[in-house]
Amino acid sequence: MIRLKEGVPLALREKRSWVLPLGVWALVTLVTGLAGPFGTHAALDIAGRFAYWGAIVGLSVAGGTFLPGFDGRAPWSSLISWTGFIAFLSLLIWAINGQLFDSWRPVSMLGYLLVIVGLIVVAVHGLIWLINFARPAAATLPQTAPQTSAQTDPQTRFLRRLPLADRGPLVRIEAQDHYLNVVTDKGGSLILLRLSDAVRELSGTPGLLVHRSHWVALQGVVAHRRENGRDLLIMSDGAEVPVSRSNRAAARDAGLF
């Protein structure tokens, strides 16, 4: 769990969120650089292999980090985004290979390259997902003390993930890469969890998912305004949360505007 105190710059939060992807990049680059798969062992020396695979794996990690995840909100949109990313990365490597290898046959090998790049992207981001999936579970072991009625409240259970100083009525939750910025009336903290899991844990709490990256507590909304055709909710912490078109009707029904 990473505590986010007031005044901590955004750059520091972003640095923390890149630690896991950088670690996966280093590990996969080390393995592929030493092994030299798909003919690179014979075509390149060890320095060339590390440079080649470091660039390819780095592009996969960096590009895929900004793509939407498959968390049930928009599966077809996510599938299209990842397919387009794999196609773009394949075309880029296709052009690079044409310059590096004399025997490379770009047109005839393009289909093969699409499969290889797809497997690399799935392997890299599958590893990141598995690590992210396992870490929150380890942080939420069952309590040995007897549960009271207050402890069975969804919001109270969820707030156990936060430092004691930041536990208070929820205001909003914002997805930031692989982390969530959980804001209460006492402060904010970064926790490693998917937004879809947080929304499921908070079932029954007066709140609403208003955007694919934002959940708001109804009591935390203080005003509403429109700007350039977009609905924005003004929160008690001063943040402005966008409302997506697909969630506008639910927000209106909840009395948020």
Largest sheet: 6 strands, antiparallel
- Which structural category fits the helices and strands? alpha+beta
Q: For the residues shown, what is the average pLDDT?
A: 79
| Spatial arrangement of strands, main beta sheet | 1-4-3-2-6-5
Distance between the termini: 35 Å
Structure, explained:
The protein is of the alpha+beta class. The chain has two domains: 2-138, no CATH class; 154-253, LytTr DNA-binding domain (OB fold (Dihydrolipoamide Acetyltransferase, E2P), Beta Barrel). It has helices at 10-17, 19-35, 40-43, 46-65, 75-100, 106-138, 154-159, 195-201, 245-253; strands at 2-4, 170-176, 179-184, 187-192, 207-211, 214-217, 221-227, 230-235, 240-243. The strands form two sheets. It has a six-stranded antiparallel sheet. A three-stranded antiparallel sheet has the order 7-8-9. Helix 5 (75-100) crosses helix 6 (106-138). It is elongated, with a radius of gyration of 22 Å.
